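Bench notes, afternoon.
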Amino acid sequence: MSMTTDVFVRFSGTKRELRAILSDQFQIRVGGKLVWFLGYIELNLTSRAEAPDYFSGGQFRPYNFALGGTIYPGSNGLGEAGPAHGLIMEVIAQVIAARLKTRTMCYCQEDASCRRYRFAGGAQRKKGIEVIDERTGRAPRYLFR
């Protein structure tokens, strides 16, 4: 059984520009021959124009790209890779929000849970915080600051 966690990105450029940024700045390759991240997360990049049904619903309204990360636990012999997969996609969402100075959302399809992140501004930036969890209004609890 596969598990998918998507990172929805608000980006004003084209899919080609976003793919170049992901490749150059983050070493995340989507499409072509190298579609795997860390050897067990299969990545794909989808735009709103290509799959409008994928972005249906109010929570997906501000986003126009989705970076999908899928793992196949039975096929890779990694055992319990599910929790690590979700955590890795959360960090990717936080890093993309900080680097592109935009909004992102990490959405887990299995339980329909989501976390929204945005680039921090004003007083938060003065405190050294780069990303804000939109639910709490504070820096994310773990990992990236």
